[in-house]
Amino acid sequence: MRNLASEEGGVHRRFSLRRNRWADVADFDRRVGELEQRRVSLNDELDALTE
């Protein structure tokens, strides 16, 4: 039970409105860009295989 209570406290701190989220948003945006590049690359590979 004690571990669950500490995890709950951690969740509340992570989602605190006082925490600056811009760094998290920038990191998320970077990861989305990387995934988009990977998707384009994989689509190009698939197109080459189907030709």
How would you describe the overall organization of this protein?
With 51 residues, the chain is mainly α. The protein has a domain at 20-51. Helices cover 82% and strands 0% of the residues. It has two helices and no strands. The chain has helices at 2-14, 22-50. The longest helix has 29 residues, at 22-50.
Q: What are the secondary-structure elements, in order, as H or E?
A: HH
The rough form would be described as: elongated
Distance between the termini: 59 Å
Indicate the percent of residues in helices. over 70%
What summary fits the major beta sheet?
none
Query: How many helix segments?
Result: 2
Q: In terms of per-residue confidence, which ranges show pLDDT below 50 for 5 or more consecutive residues?
A: none
Q: Give the overall average pLDDT.
A: 84
Strands, helices and their partners?
Layout: H1 2-14, H2 22-50
List its salient traits.
single chain; mainly alpha
Give a quick precis of the structure.
82% of the residues lie in helices and 0% in strands. The protein is mainly α and 51 residues long.
